[in-house]
Specification:
The complex is a heterodimer of chains A (394) and B (338). Chain A has 394 residues and is mainly alpha-helical. Chain A folds into 2 domains: 87 residues, no CATH class; 211 residues, MetI-like (MetI-like fold). Chain A has 15 helices and no strands. In chain A, helix 6 runs antiparallel to helix 11. The longest helix of chain A has 34 residues. With 338 residues, chain B is mainly alpha-helical. Chain B has a single domain, classed as MetI-like (MetI-like fold). Chain B contains 12 helices and 2 strands, in the order ααββαααααααααα. A two-stranded antiparallel ribbon of chain B has the order 1-2. In chain B, strand 1 and strand 2 form a beta hairpin. Classes of the chains: A mainly alpha (394), B mainly alpha (338). Chains A and B meet through helix 3, helix 6, helix 7, helix 8 and helix 9 of A and helix 1, helix 3, helix 4, helix 5 and helix 6 of B.
């Protein structure tokens, strides 16, 4: 496609000035080539990207296997990464100056850092499941407690039911305390306000710094030593709530603060009272955010060992009543078994860690699903339940 | 047609202006006061913890005076109690953790916000959040079994190659010996710091990534349009914009690293002394001291432990407050597209 050249300058007269000409199709021109996407790398660029790391792989092999006495996979990985940076610099220098070299090396470095983190995460989860796989394959691991089972007994005896139940009971106590108090405080701080609310906010933000072991020590010295209560699931639940309360209150405060002020004002302008505004406008708007804040707080509490270590005591048998003496929980079960030094007990601890990981993962997925912006499509259940609207006849 | 208001001569029409008040009445008053009561109770609970720690720990600090902060040993039976050793241990574990966690968090946050393909970004953000939700005991057992043997070997390599640095020396071990004494390198502050770094890294990374993602796109595009490479754009726009988030996120992570208990108690073998050699076995932190010693503590020892916990709380409080101030003061969050 070519554009017809405009008339020669001498032809420009007063009559033709300011006239635009439409481009005309030229039949002899070759067909237009589809333009490649601007963001997509050209073949040369992708060859450079892959070629750099291919060359680094070869270089790493030569250096570690042939040139230097560097044995083992760790050295290979280190040399591979180092030569990758070097090759990035070389390919950068082939294309441009120092700016290009810096850009390529930085990109490799940033990607490398992210890969290290990914490897750490995958190795953590993978190793826990790898070590804990054998107990997990026995059904009784989920259905039995450890009463009468020695640490060295085989995996077809005993299980972690008591620890799972203990974790759930303690978390339920903690949620029953922190949910109303935490969200109530957040409502107070954002919706009521005033000088007192500022004081509460300052103290709550300060207490998010409280180390979990100190929260446990607080409940230990007040509830168990001073009040003379026995170690129990209730004490552990209280310790978890002391730890979780500032976290949940602060997160809920952040969520409520981003509710648009226009919504509140619209509701008040329609004559709703402040309580009705909070109940019917602010809280429903913030509902997904509040649920996320709560669940992430619960996930944090589920994994904390130190408050439980001080307050609950480790039982080997199933206890469902939180006021009925010592009660185990998953993190505590892991901690005590890991320290026992017995091979089978360690494997049980790893299996319990896998169970704990799955519990946290489930909570996490629920939080993500709740935090998702609600689509316009009704849920599957609602679509199944509601009858299809009958066709409108003219 | 509009008509003018007719002036009225009668005098008795004067009314008092409506009384305007923000004071809540009826159901609103109930709501306001119950919310206030909830706030007050939470203030009582959370503030009570801090006050209680100070009140319980005060007798110990008063009794031992300055020596509480200079004594290395924790020997309640000999009436020698001090937190100098555990304070140094706390800071060395946290320092190792931050040396590892800071670059990783920064690089990962940069990767997610600037380098990752757009469709992977949401997934990577959830992965970092998930990493932050992994219980600390899991990182503890990961560090103890999977990492510690490699960490010990790396520590030996570090000592033989950089042993002239005083804090990398290991007393009582010869790194060049034919048979190397691995036990001198196990259970060190270095090993504990690796596990703690994995725990605090996602936290720092999440804060940094959030701040980076708030960089005004106009400024980024302007840098690219002026011919900057991606790295040039990062150094000239993203990093200066996110400086507050980088410092604040790092300090939040530091606050968490200082208070981390279980992984440290699991990995570290207890030794009470002022030890700067991070690669050498044995150390203690305030939180691992509490976790190890609360069981056999008498009333006065409990008070001493509470005093130690109070000191730890004050330190993390200072670090967190500084972090909050820095994050709030930075330019991040304030739009420039006016």
């Amino acid at each position: 496609m070519t554009i017809e050249s405009p008339p020669a300058p001498e032809a420009t007269t007063a009559a033709t000035a300011g006239t635009t000409y439409r481009p005309v199709l030229d039949d002899d021109a070759p067909p237009p080539v589809p333009r490649s996407s601007l963001g997509r790398p050209s073949p040369e660029e992708s060859f450079l990207a892959w070629g750099t790391w291919g060359a680094a792989l070869g270089l790493a092999w030569v250096v570690t296997q042939r040139l230097l006495p560097l044995e083992g996979i760790p050295w290979f990985v280190v040399v591979f990464f180092g030569s990758g940076l070097l090759m990035s610099a070389v390919t950068g220098a082939m294309h441009g100056g120092l700016v290009e070299v810096r850009d390529r090396v930085a990109a490799s470095l940033v990607t490398g850092g992210a890969v290290v983190v990914a490897v750490a995460l995958v190795s953590t989860i993978g190793y826990v499941f790898y070590r804990g796989w054998e107990p997990l394959t026995h059904v009784n691991f989920f259905l039995d407690d450890m009463s009468g089972v020695g640490p060295a007994d085989s995996f077809d005896k005993g299980g972690v039911l008591h620890a799972i139940v203990g974790t759930i009971v303690q978390l339920a106590i903690a949620v029953a305390i922190t949910l109303p108090l935490g969200i109530g405080t957040a409502v107070f701080m954002t919706e009521v306000g005033g000088r007192f609310a500022k004081l509460v906010r300052t103290v709550v933000e300060a207490m998010t710094a409280l180390p979990s072991i100190v929260a446990g020590l607080f409940i230990y010295s007040v509830f168990i030593v001073a009040l003379g209560q026995p170690r129990s699931g209730l004490a552990a639940g209280l310790a978890l709530s002391v730890m979780m309360l500032p976290i949940i209150a602060r997160a809920a405060d952040v969520v409520l603060r981003v509710v648009p002020g226009g919504l509140r004002e619209a509701s008040l302008a329609l004559g709703a009272s402040r309580w009705r505004t909070v109940r019917h406008v602010v809280l429903p708007t913030a509902r997904p955010g509040l649920a996320t804040a709560l669940i992430l707080g619960v996930a944090r509490g589920a994994g904390e060992t130190s408050p439980v270590l001080l307050t609950s005591g480790a039982a080997a048998f199933l206890v469902a009543n939180p006021t009925d003496g010592v009660m185990n929980s998953l993190p505590l079960f892991i901690y005590t078994n890991v320290r026992s030094g017995q091979g089978t007990a360690e494997d049980r601890a790893f299996a319990a860690a896998a169970v704990l990981l799955m519990l946290v993962l489930i909570l996490f997925v629920i939080a993500r699903l709740l935090a998702r912006p609600r689509g316009t499509k009704p849920s599957l259940l609602r679509r199944l339940l509601t009858r299809r609207p009958s066709e409108v006849r003219p | 047609m509009t008509t003018l208001p007719v002036s009225d001569d009668r005098d008795d029409l004067a009314v008092d202006p409506r009384h305007i008040s923000r004071r809540a009445t009826g159901g609103d008053a109930v709501f306001e006061w119950s919310a206030r009561a909830v706030g007050a109770s939470v203030l009582l609970i959370t503030g009570g913890v801090g006050l209680f720690l100070g009140w319980q720990g005060f007798p110990t600090i008063k009794r031992y005076g300055v020596s509480f902060f200079t004594e290395e040993q924790w020997l309640p039976d000999e009436d020698r109690i001090g937190i100098a050793g555990v304070l140094v241990g706390t800071f060395s574990v946290a320092a190792v953790a931050m040396v590892i966690a800071f670059p990783l968090a920064l690089l990962t946050a940069l990767y997610i916000s600037e380098y990752a393909p757009a469709r992977l970004r949401g997934f990577l953000v959830s992965m970092i959040d998930l990493m932050a939700a992994v219980p600390s005991i899991v990182y503890g057992i990961w560090g103890f079994w999977l990492i510690m043997p490699h960490a010990a070997e790396f520590a030996r390599w570090l000592e033989s190659n950089a042993g002239w640095l005083p804090f990398l020396q290991v007393r009582g071990a010869d790194p060049d010996a034919a048979y190397w004494d691995a036990s001198r390198y196990y259970s060190s502050a270095f090993c504990a710091g690796i596990a703690v770094s994995m725990m605090v890294m996602p936290m720092a990374c999440a804060v940094m990534r959030q701040v980076f993602s708030q960089t005004p796109p106009g400024e980024k595009e302007a840098a690219l349009a002026l011919g900057a490479t991606r790295w040039g754009m990062v150094t000239s726009v993203v990093l200066p914009f996110g400086r507050g988030g980088i410092i604040g996120g790092t300090m939040l992570a530091l606050g968490r690293a200082l208070g981390e208990t279980i992984a440290v108690a699991l990995i570290l073998s207890v030794a009470f002394e002022v030890k700067w050699n991070v690669l050498e076995t044995g150390s203690a932190t305030i939180s691992s001291l509490i976790a190890n010693r609360f069981g056999e503590a008498s009333a006065s020892q409990l008070s001493a432990l509470l005093a130690a916990g109070f000191v730890l709380f004050i330190i993390t409080l200072l670090v967190n407050t500084a972090a909050a101030v820095i994050v709030n003061r930075s330019r991040s969050g304030a739009g420039t597209d006016a």
